[in-house]
């Protein structure tokens, strides 16, 4: 039954892809044919998805709260719009709920797993965002070295930053390109750097902007200032890595303790559904589940405050 269910799910996923993207093109691409024919044909489900995205986009534009912001998705490296992400997450939640019903699970259990879909999507976006900011912080010391070398060669600060944006890796190259482009259209360079520091939540990059602003007002050798800031950033990065290494065991223990209740609950829902149904059908079982959920959330915040060290 599990093998048959897996085959049906893969087949449904393939049919869904064909319905949205259409039949794969042969030797002549569809775009080339549409260019000469003047008619753009799209599958019915693809048009339905576009209509749903348009409706979700209008709904999000009216409200103040958004589950996924455009800046948040951009920083996380997601190249899709917020409306597309919302539609995909809702479709995944609905598919999870229907799959649990087909597997014979209780509808409340399927509803619980479906409600986890947006939570998981939000967590994934936040993890990607934190990973991008971490890479950005790790590239600051090398950035200052490249900028100092360009300044010693006789380039101006905007020119040195432009050259560094072309030589650096992502995400540093993208953020520096943003600073340079904003400077070219008339925005102050230090102000643009401060905006990037807020976007990336980088105190070190804010220090670089403050050092450049101080050099503007008081004068001095910018090369030496950048070298001193680079040395300070390297020491902070070294301390940060030590803290991460020393707290690795606590963070791993927190991940395991947070995963165990959910994993064991899902496992017993499949192998002993009759026993797990007691928690859903009886009143005392619902009270126990509610209390366990509250204690689970409180324990998660408690462990997060223990293993999260800010400096």
Order of helix and strand elements from N to C terminus: HHHHHHHHHHHHHHHH
Coarse shape: elongated
Number of helices: 16
DSSP summary, beta strand count = 0
Radius of gyration: 26 Å
The CATH architecture of the largest domain comes to Up-down Bundle
CATH class descriptor of the largest domain = Mainly Alpha
| N- to C-terminal distance | 53 Å
Q: Using the coordinates shown, work out and report the CATH topology of the largest domain.
A: Receptor-associated Protein
- Main beta-sheet strand count, sense and barrel state: none
Instruction: Output the structural class.
Output: mainly alpha
- Calculate the mean pLDDT score and round it: 79
Helix content: over 70%
Range of strand content? under 5%
Q: pLDDT below 50 for ≥5 consecutive residues: which ranges?
A: 21-28
Instruction: Write down the domain tally.
Output: 3
What secondary-structure arrangement, pairings included, does this model have?
Elements: H1 2-21, H2 30-37, H3 44-62, H4 70-75, H5 82-102, H6 107-138, H7 140-152, H8 157-167, H9 172-184, H10 189-200, H11 203-218, H12 222-246, H13 248-271, H14 273-276, H15 278-281, H16 283-307
Structural notes for this entry:
The structure is a single chain. The chain is mostly helical and 311 residues long. The chain folds into three domains: 82 residues, no CATH class; 102 residues, Receptor-associated Protein (Up-down Bundle), CATH 1.20.81; 61 residues, no CATH class. Helix content is 81%, strand content 0%. The longest helix has 32 residues. It is elongated and about 75 Å long.
